[in-house]
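Dear colleague,

Following up on Tuesday's group meeting, I ran the structure prediction for the three-component complex that the binding team flagged. I've pasted the input sequences exactly as they went in, so you can double-check that nothing got truncated or mislabelled along the way. The structure tokens for the whole assembly follow below. Feel free to forward this to whoever is handling the docking comparison.

Inputs:
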Amino acid sequence: MFRRSDQDKRPSLQIFVDGVAVEAREGDTVSAALLASGRDVRRATAVSGTPRLPYCMMGVCFDCLVTIDGVGNRQGCLVPVAAGMQIEIQKGKREIGR
Amino acid sequence: MTRLADAIIVGGGIHGCSTALHLALAGMKPVLIEKDYAGRHASGVNAGGVRQLARDVAEIPLSIRSMGIWERIEELLDDDCSFESHGQVLVAENETELAAYRARVAELNALGFTHEELIDGAELRRLVPAVADTCPGGVVSRRDGAANPAQTTTAFRRKAELLGATVREGVAASNVRREGDLWCVDVGADTYAAPVLVNAAGAWAGRIAASLGEPVPVETVAPMLMITSRVPHFIDPVVILRGRKLSFKQFKNGTVLIGGGHLATPDQDRNETVLDWKSLAVSARTVFELFPVMRDATIMRAWAGIEARTKDELPVLGPSARHAGLYHQFGFSLHGFQLGPGAGAVMAELIVNGGTQTRIGDLGIDRFRSFTS
Amino acid sequence: MNAVPQRDAYDVVVIGAGPAGLAATASASAAGLSTLLLDENPGPGGQVWRAIASTPVTARDQLGADYWAGAELVGEVRASKAEIIHRATVWSLDRHLEIGISVGGASAFVKARRVILATGALERPFPIPGWTLPGVMTAGAAQTMLKSSALVPDGRTVIAGQGPLLWLLAAQILRLGGRIDRILDTTERKNYLAALPHAFAFVTSPYFMKGLAMMREVKAKVPVTTGVTELTAAGEGQLAGVSYVAGNRRETIPADLLLLHQGVVPNVNLAMAAGVEHRWDELQLCWSPVINGDGGTSIEGIAIAGDGAGIGGANAAVVRGRIAARAAIEALAPAAAAKLTPMTALKAALAQAERGRAFLDTLFRPARQFRIPADDTIVCRCEEVTAKDIVDAVAIGATGPNQLKAYRRTGMGPCQGRLCGLTVTELMAQARGKTPQEIGYYRLRAPVKPITLAELAAMPKTDDDVKAVVRG
């Protein structure tokens, strides 16, 4: 859906999406990195389980909710990636108490 | 223009709406006057607990009466009000609390009330698996439950209207007065007149009672609530504490409601409240300790509903001690939601029959006779 | 940059580091007021100047001069004594000017003598059938990725809607080598006539020539369909195509990405939760705060600057930020105020910056069918409530957005009505034959952004604890 412009010279780093290593760039938000990865990163809603991707990318819509380093319901579009970050795509209601 | 009615009810909370419905069921044509809209304040935004558990003995008969109505609420209102009956559990956090609860249940049994039942740690964990290991037991009222407060209040309003009640929303009742044998109330450009006036104005009822010469020690309070995002189902009954302030309930949709009576600062004239986050943090800490599973749930919203609390934390329910045709139904002091259906039925009996079989003698306004505002 | 606020009270707390917030911070700080700037994003700039300090787009002309215009102001703020905290979520503000902030998973409160809200705008909801499908995003979302990560669309891409931002985005995507297959322009033909009386002010404003050049640049490379009156996103769990009607023509275009845009509206959540009075703006079709000439609101001590006070664009936002700051300086440090640019000069600059706005508002007034959906189209994305659900609830007695919550949970999800509120108000107004002002809006409450229970539980409970933590 998206590709990186050639002029992007930022250093790359590795994050993990559902345990799989994915390349991101320093300064990407989690949501941008997920969309750039080419992987299926659709979450399933807590209400009906229908698939969604980020919609607004500016902290408004909450369709980018992901679990980051074990903390659920984070707005992926507001969180910059960090090397080694563990990201889980949320399927349905966010489990608590793990 | 003056319009005649059989009764004027001031206040469109669950109490006013329930009384309107029960009067309409008895064949009367009441008019209900609500300055905002039905359920705008505490009745529409409370925790929705349908609880007989842990009530003052003085209001237990009314609570039991009400429970009977709750259990067939859909028949009455053509709306299930999202009422669910999974019991309510009063959790003892330590042996001292458990001992006090044991004595309380024995006292109730001696009075002939059997709805409260002492439970040990094993039964507590069977009912509430997520509760902290340190809690030694508690009390359960198995028929209790919870409903959606806004849906319920609206359903009472809708059914009352369907059966012939007039509902005037968005304009305050003013200039409440007696003219001959009739009570008169101005509503915008209109005046309503009726032989019966029911003061069910919630946080605003104290002012009406005082203006009619029956001051009551009542204050305006705004208990706060907060709700989490949807989490997987993990608890059925409503859980309450008495030592620390907490009520705790998970809805069918997965959201968890956290309340218990910490207060916001109400601004009655602005119709708003300012939340006290330091107290909400105390609530959060209580949940954090009692339900470790909840620690990374997210808080979505917090709010507070304005209502009246009397000095003895019991409602004022019954006829005026001074005026014929005047009735009071207010001051439910943070626990009036469950009582709404029953109190409306009782109020209709008082108005239509001049009496009721339900024991409400301790709730009369004359208990505050010596109070002057 | 600091991780947590260094004090527990400030003269001025500015919320939002876009054009208005940066300008307000620069002015307040330069006048010697203790100033705290809080912003949710990783860096300064807001949306218009997003990632201005970090963008990987090095070819400056690709983002355009209006983008780089923000660099000077960012430099001014960074050189000032103001504290700046990024990735700070302001989740509560009340009439006592107490501000609840979450930074790095911990919450604290700070107090302000003056609060300047510069929370900007968000894109107007565009509730067409299928707008919740993966592959449908806002134009602003694509622009955010372009500016902050140099990401451009490379699948089959359709841009639909209207307004200046849509053309700017299209131009930027093309300059960075991205792909656009089609632009579907939903501007109503009747609007051209309606906007005519405002045309003189517009053609003599700086927007005119820039806008014309940009549209020419885009139209040279992308087919544009005008007069689009119906729009649908279709697909099973993923966008597959976009259907539209324009005149007598009905067509379905295969698409992987649909970018929607029909203007921006004030981001009112924090102001409303604080209790600031708002009114329905019939020209801009949104809720705007009731403000005086200095941005002051119905709550003593809270001012609003920038697009959050009514859409005016970046240039106007900068001036409004300076005006709001100047009013705070006059109140808190009158001696310092005497040395500043006179208020009359700022007001004249504002009038200049707002020139042409009425034309844009009228020309790009979104069509009714794109604001007020019907049938199975989702209105509330969070709780998955359709237009029909809402109309049905009205039929059984829901009279306004707050009553509707009891029936349908609209607005009760995590976005707190940001993406359904305007639609719900207009839909209920239509269904009940009332004006949007009469129907009203959701009563918004803190936290305006969710916080975890653990974070709230860990919050300091006494004032001494507060000091201990925020000074930490």
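Chain A touches chain C through 43 residues (CB under 8 Å).

Cheers,
M.
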